[in-house]
Design brief:
The protein is mainly alpha-helical and 222 residues long. It contains nine helices and no strands. The longest helix has 31 residues. The radius of gyration is 17 Å and the shape is globular.
């Protein structure tokens, strides 16, 4: 079922946006944010009911959604959302997948994380192919302002926070041109894959923590 959900999403995006890469990335990033919203919604529900409280999970998933938001803002600055049909499709698919992942996360959390592992893996491969095919053109274009602010000039706390497989402040990518920006986005997707894999480990409820936390924060009933 999980592979089917991913396959349908990939088929629609690949078919509709075969020759329109920036709108394609806009739609992909709009949908890619949604599962992290789903995780946060369910985790807040558990905490409200007093079942489970894990601040580290909330921090990391919010940082992941923050990262995907900036991918989306970059695509919007590049004009990916200009056509109303692209916005309509992206938002309605995102709404559908939000509720699907909420239900999946309630009954099978590892399945919901595996879903995003596959989506982020597809995104990595898509960006990697785009970089190889357009390297020369991308290197002569300036980096969008929102990318410079996010990757270089802004507060990088949340940038470090979603990369649970790295030590703090070890990744400070360049943003000298548009090629650098797409390299950064591609590499972000790989970091998401690593974090999703970590969330699926058998001992994750006890061992998973945010990069800024020396020990897991919070307590509750597992």
């Amino acid at each position: 079922m999980i592979r089917l959900l991913v396959g349908v999403l990939v088929f629609v995006i690949n078919t509709v946006y075969r020759d329109r890469p920036i709108p394609r990335f806009y739609v992909l990033e709009t949908v890619a944010r949604v599962p992290y919203f789903s995780y946060l919604s369910v985790l807040h529900l558990y905490e409200t009911l007093g079942w489970w409280r894990k601040a580290d999970w909330l921090k990391v998933h919010f940082a992941e959604s923050w990262n995907e938001l900036h991918h989306l803002l970059i695509m919007e600055e590049l004009g990916g959302d200009k056509f109303w049909g692209d916005r309509f499709l992206a938002r309605h698919v995102a709404l559908l997948y939000y509720w699907i992942i909420v239900l999946l996360y309630l009954v099978y959390p590892n399945g919901a994380y595996h879903f995003m592992e596959l989506v982020e893996g597809h995104a990595y491969n898509t960006y990697n192919k785009f970089l190889k095919e357009n390297e020369a053109d991308l290197k002569v274009q300036p980096a969008p302002k929102v990318a410079v602010q996010y990757y270089r000039d802004g507060d990088l706390y949340l940038f470090d926070e979603f990369q649970t497989g790295r030590k703090l402040e070890t990744r400070r990518p360049a943003t000298d041109n548009l090629y650098d920006v797409f390299v950064n986005i591609r590499d972000d997707e790989q970091e998401h894959v690593k974090t999703m894999v970590a969330c699926q480990q058998p001992d994750a409820r006890l061992s998973f923590k945010s990069p800024h936390s020396p020990v897991p924060i919070g307590s509750g009933i597992d």
